[in-house]
Structures are given as C-alpha cells and as structure tokens.
Specification:
This protein is 33% helix and 22% strand. The protein has 504 residues and is an alpha+beta fold. The protein has a domain of 247 residues: 2-Layer Sandwich (Nucleotidyltransferase, domain 5), CATH 3.30.420.40. α13 links the parallel β21 and β22. Its EC number is 2.7.1.30. It is an enzyme of class 2 (transferase). This is Glycerol kinase.
Length: 504
C-alpha cells in the first residue's frame, strides 16, 4: 500500500516551513526557508509577502522528497497571526510591505482612539483590548497614510488578509479566481470579528472604517476549503489556524483546563476554556482556540509574552557574554541562584497581563557580587516569572486552574529553564516527543477535515511525552522571590510614572 501523508505549511515570523507527517503524527520530511525582516523606522517591522509566497514555492517540492501529489491527503496551514497584508485584487501585487504583528507604528493612533472610546467598546464585541498588536489599527493606519487606498478598498479593488489568507489565495489561483478566506482563529485576532457570532462586526467595521468588501470570508479551522491549483494541484486545503492555536491543537489540549506554552522569540500561553467565552478581568486575551467543521467553536484564554528567547539573543549578540544560545544554560549553572538580580525585558513594553507599551526594561539588584553567571540565570528566570504572571491571571479568570503545562518551542531544550518554570508554577511541565507542535496542529486539523484521522481521541493517542519536570521548591522561597520579581516589574512600569490602566 502506498503511504499517504498530510502536509503542514507553517508560515512563521522568521521563516516558512513545510513538513510531511504520517498517520502516527511522525515527521517524514521538512524544508524551511527564512525571509528577510525590514526595519524602515524605529518600531516598524515589515515582511515582503511576495518573498514569502516565492519561498513556499521553493520549499514545497523539497519537502515532497520524492513523494507524489496523490500521496498527500490534505494541506494544513499555520501562520504568524495579526501580520497584515493588503493587495490588489486584479494584479495580486501587495500594497507595500506586510506589517508584522511586532510592529508598533500604530501606537499613537491606538492611544488617541482609546482616549475617545475606551476598551469596553472593543471587549464587548471582539473580546480584545485596543492595542498595536492587532490587525484593524494597521488597516486604519494604512488608510490614513496611503493616498487613495481607502477609496480603492471601497470599490473592491483591494483585499485584506493575514498570512494564511494570502497563501490560500495564491495556492488556489490568485488573480484568476483565488479563494479569499480566513479561519475563525485568525479572524479573532483582527479586532473586527464578533467573538460570539463569529462574523464580521458591523460596529467595529464602521469604527475602523474597513469596507466589508475587502475582508475574507470567515470559515472554520478544519474543513475542506478547496483544492490547490498550483504547487500541489488537486490536493485539498483542509485547515488554517493561527500558529499559537495550532500549537494548542498539536498538543492535543482538547479539554477545558488543558494548556500549552510555546517558548520561542516570545512566548504564548493558551488555556482551553471550552465553548464558553470568558472575558478576562486580569489582562489576558479571549480568543478562538479552534473550530472543527460545523461543531461549536472552542475558546481559549491567551497570555502573550513579548520577550523570552529574544532576551537570550540580546544576551548573546548585544552583550557578547555567550557565543551561542545553548551556552546560557551552562553559564547559568555556574551559580546557585540569581544573586538577587532580576531582569524585566520590557524592550518594547510589556504584553500580558500588563499591556503597557510604555514600560521599559530594567535590571534590578546589581551589586559588585553579581557575575555574568548571575546575569545568565536572571535572563532565564525572567521567562519563568513572566510565565507565572500569566498563569496567575489564568487561574483568576478561568474556572479550571492549571494542573499541568505542556510546552514546546526552541527554549524547551533548556532543562534549567524548564525546571525553573515547573518550580515557579508549582505544576508538572511536560514536553512531547514531536517538538513541531505548530506544524503538527495544522496537519492534525487538515487530516480531521478529510478523514485521514477519525477523531480527537485518535490524535490524543499520537501524543507521547518526551520529558517531564516536577516542582520541588520551598513554597516560602518561591513566593519571596516572586515578590522580588513583582517589585522589579513595578520599576519597569513606573520608570516615567505614567497612569496605570486596567483592561477590565
């Protein structure tokens, strides 16, 4: 019998990967290609959408590695969320560069809008606070700064999408009939979709001045959308999810209370809240976790952390204290603790649970006793303490307190860090055999859509633990150190003493 596979396309912040998975969820082949980042001004971060599409055209044949198109049961797509692409419907040419989710050019616009509207207007409709993080302010900014763009959009000449929309449109024909769709997880990050109805919200469209004609159709995360017209002609496209929701799915967090954290450049902790929309009162984001075909949507609370792995990169590249990222664990193990030193990496503000773009990074507790080993440990511990802040907020918001944390991403190779996370959370931390959980989640959803896998329980049986870290810290010490961390965060938040703001 000829082996069949599911292909996953993971269009991420720094690269695009294409992976084939077999029926047991094992990685068969992988191809990857990085794309360039553009930083035209301070706070601006852009990508070239055409370069990303061309990269996909290069890596799909590499990932096939001798397999034929008829061996691919379906394609699933995971993508960097919130990154905004506008393009000409007729020519397929983007309207400038794609604006990355990391971009903060809309900061002043967001502050102006918040002063006139406040957050409740948005929280009641899209369950999100007004922030530079999301897509709608970027669309509004482009309308304000590109002459004639709004009029073109009103005439139906310009299309909007996040990266999965852009790729699906090109895979299915582009200017010659490409399918213009998004899924509920990505739509839930635009600030334009009503979280309860799962449709574009007329009040939000009017507020941001976004014509409905430029928006993609909202579909479920797992269904047979269409067949590819290029690269893999005839193969069904069966799933699209934002990358962090894909990781939740790949970690098989299908029950309320199950949670995962992806540790990469930044970190993203999501907890499944079932079919209930829970409005966070403690600085978290309410988001759609996934939706399978006609089944009810499953929701999640999310705590994004802006700087985790990138703090290690700063320690390596800007300070020059290590020559490679893995060396930080060895250096941190040269000391027994942080020596009273805490680092709050608010390089461009703090995300959850604070949502303060004006916060700035601080190093607290420096004395002549502190060595580079203490600094290395403080760098790692910053990730653990930020995780603790998010979990505390989740336990306060969710009816299901965290019992175990599933982890993935490049930083999980650091055993010292993972043990520290288990200590500060006081719950087991577990890592699966398959590390590529974002890609696997997109593959799982696509396979479900076409019957390659029968049900969620079948996917659970594919999940196997590779490593586990158990907590073993004295509770009094844990809480004392957490108090020290929180005082350091207050320094980061209060360095210019701005007025504090609540999301509730």
């Amino acid at each position: 019998m000829v082996e069949r596979y599911v292909m996953s396309i993971d269009q991420g912040t720094t690269s695009t990967r294409c992976i084939l998975f077999d029926h047991r969820g094992r990685l068969v082949s992988v191809a990857q290609r990085e794309h360039q980042h553009h930083f035209p001004r301070p706070g601006w971060v852009e990508h070239d959408a055409v370069e990303i599409w061309r990269n996909l055209q290069r890596i799909v044949p590499q990932a096939m590695d001798g397999a034929e198109a008829d061996q691919v049961a379906a394609i699933g797509i995971a993508n960097q969320r919130e990154t905004t692409v506008l393009w000409d419907r007729t020519t397929g040419a983007p309207v400038g560069k794609a604006i990355s989710w990391q971009d903060t050019r809309t900061d002043s616009l967001v502050e102006d809008l918040r002063r006139t509207t406040g957050d409740d207007f948005f929280l009641d409709r899209c369950s999100l606070p007004l922030a530079t993080y999301f897509s709608a302010p970027r669309i509004r900014w482009l309308f304000d700064h590109v002459e004639g763009l709004h009029e073109r959009a009103e005439r139906g000449e310009v299309l909007f999408g996040t990266m999965e929309t852009w790729l699906i449109w090109n895979l299915t024909g582009g200017p010659t009939g490409g399918l213009h769709i998004t899924d509920v997880t990505n739509a839930s990050r635009t600030m334009l979709m009503n979280t309860r109805t799962l449709t574009w919200d007329e009040d939000l469209l009017a507020y941001f001045g976004v014509p409905r004609s430029m928006l993609p159709e909202i579909r479920s995360s797992a269904e047979s959308y269409a067949v590819a017209g290029s690269l893999l002609p005839g193969v069904r496209i069966g799933a699209a999810l934002g990358d962090q929701q894909a990781a939740l799915f790949g970690q098989t967090c299908f029950a309320p209370g199950e949670a995962k954290c992806t540790y990469g450049t930044g970190s993203f902790l999501l907890i499944n809240t079932g079919t209930q929309v829970i409005r966070s009162r403690h600085g978290l984001l309410t988001t759609v976790g996934y939706k399978i075909k006609d089944e009810p949507a499953v929701y999640a609370l999310e705590g994004p952390i802006a700087v985790t792995g990138s703090l290690v990169q700063w320690f390596r590249d800007s300070l020059g204290l290590i020559s490679s990222a893995p060396e930080i664990e060895t250096l941190a193990r040269t000391v027994d603790d942080n020596g009273g030193c805490y680092i709050v990496p608010a390089f461009s503000g703090l995300y959850a649970p604070h949502w303060r773009s004006d916060a700035r990074g601080v190093i607290v507790g420096l004395t002549s006793y502190i060595t580079k080993g203490h600094l290395a440990r403080a760098v790692l511990e910053a990730t653990g303490w930020q995780t603790r802040e998010v979990v505390d907020a989740m336990n306060a918001d969710s009816p299901h307190s965290l019992k175990e944390l599933k982890v993935d991403g490049g930083m999980t190779a650091n055993n010292l860090l993972m043990q520290f996370v288990a200590e500060v959370l006081d719950v087991p931390v577990v890592r699966p055999m398959v590390a590529e959980t974002v890609s696997l989640g997109a593959a799982y959803a696509a396979g479900l859509a076409v019957g390659y896998w029968p049900d969620l329980e079948g996917l659970r049986r594919n999940w196997h633990r590779a490593a586990q870290w158990l907590p073993d810290m004295d509770p009094e010490r844990r809480e004392s150190e957490y108090d020290n961390w929180q005082r350091a965060v207050e320094r980061a938040l209060g360095w210019i003493k701005p007025a504090k703001r609540s999301l509730s």
